[in-house]
Amino acid sequence: MSTQFVLTLSCPERPGIVNAVTSFLVRHSCDITEHQQFDDPDHGRVFLRTGFRTTDETIVLGGLKEDFAAIADTYGMQWELRDASVKSRVLVMVSKFDHCLADLLYRWRSGTLDADIALIVSNHADLRPMADAAGIPFEHVPVTAATKPRSEARLLELVDQYDIDLVVLARYMQILSDDLCKTLEGRAINIHHSFLPSFVGAKPYHQAYQRGVKHVGATAHYVTADLDEGPIIEQEVIRVDHRLSAAQLVLVGRDAERTALARAVNWHCQNRILLHGNRTVIFS
């Protein structure tokens, strides 16, 4: 049996970075199974993702992290090293629309979602039966203007209680506070029901219909305090034409939402996304 690990990092570009990583892995009897890198000449920065394995049972995650820290300090790396066999724990937030949740649950049950859905949270109770059918805990956390601070505090309690790695807003129709966005920075993904930045606000598909659009799309992005302007992870676009009504555009758009969100969640949980300011570097 072998243990699989994933190392991701970014740092200022300079000679010797790849050699330092590969030499480290050789010294620890590790075999590289995947290596991808991106050199960004505009910012003088290197982004790297390396998958590796070992059959040496004495090699453990904590020891690897401790030994690699010195190399990371030398090169000024922002880095993460994780055991690839341990799936990320996901909290899904929903309101009343169920299509994104249904898709994530299907992928989770079929084993194509590289994560464990640990909890479903909603500001309404409508989708509790869907959670019950899947055998996943459901938490109803109502939100009003008066209770919003208390509701968000409860959400963070649940994040800690269930040891959550990623929060997914699967058509959760509430705006998170700036403080909560900052607390969840880099570990909360939202699906926006339009091809950003067009058609923001209410009824985006009806807006698109009025403009006679030829493409309908959806954008999965990280949550930030700037509403729907966080780093973009994935965008799905579907060609349409004048024959589709506004109601039909909604159905097409929901397909785009499901696809974009599922990809974004998988890529995040597989450590394929590296953040660089308001941009993302994504290794396929």
TrEMBL record:
Active site, UniProt feature: 228
Class of the enzyme per the UniProt entry, highest EC level: hydrolase
Function of the molecule: Catalyzes the hydrolysis of 10-formyltetrahydrofolate (formyl-FH4) to formate and tetrahydrofolate (FH4).
Name of this chain's protein: Formyltetrahydrofolate deformylase
The protein's annotated pathway: Purine metabolism; IMP biosynthesis via de novo pathway; formate from 10-formyl-5,6,7,8-tetrahydrofolate: step 1/1
UniProt record, GO biological process: 'de novo' IMP biosynthetic process; one-carbon metabolic process
InterPro entries the UniProt entry points to: ACT-like_dom_sf, ACT_dom, Formyl-FH4-Hydrolase_C, Formyl_transf_N, Formyl_transf_N_sf, PurU, PurU_ACT
Family: Belongs to the PurU family.
Residue ranges of every copy of the ACT domain listed in the record: 6-86
Keywords of this entry: Hydrolase, One-carbon metabolism, Purine biosynthesis
Name of the gene encoding the protein in the UniProt record: purU
The enzyme's E.C. designation: 3.5.1.10
GO MF, one example: formyltetrahydrofolate deformylase activity
Catalysis performed (reactions): (6R)-10-formyltetrahydrofolate + H2O = (6S)-5,6,7,8-tetrahydrofolate + formate + H(+)
